[in-house]
Design goal:
This protein is mostly helical. The protein has three helices and no strands. Helix 1 packs antiparallel against helix 2 (46-60) and helix 2 runs antiparallel to helix 3. The radius of gyration is 22 Å and the shape is elongated.
């Protein structure tokens, strides 16, 4: 009804909810952030940077394992998991040796 008064949909056919949100970082940026976090996590703050790498890699993969995946995102997830696991083991061994004499 309003199309005859200059309100056509031909100029922007995908402007109503189909274009997607472009406010956040794209998948390639998340994959690179996750990869850098995973590599840095092996040297400092692994308990923090490991989960950051996991989350960034998982979001860069589109929150699923199937389909086309970017290699940096998959590497970020794997290295982030290894980094987190090593940090948890290190923390458990550090606290376990101090309490070992009491048990």
């Amino acid at each position: 009804m309003m199309a005859g008064f200059g309100h056509t949909t031909r100029k922007h056919p995908r402007s109503r909810g189909r274009a997607g949100s472009r406010s956040g970082p794209d998948r390639a940026s998340l994959a690179i952030i996750g990869l850098v976090s995973a590599i840095a996590g092996f040297f400092v703050l692994g308990i923090v940077l490991g989960p950051v790498a996991l989350v960034c890699g998982w979001l860069a993969m589109g929150r699923r394992w199937t389909g086309t995946q970017s290699v940096p995102a998959l590497v970020a997830v794997v290295l982030g998991a290894i980094d987190t696991l090593l940090a948890v083991v290190w923390l458990a061994s550090a606290t376990g040796s101090a309490a070992g004499g009491l048990l």
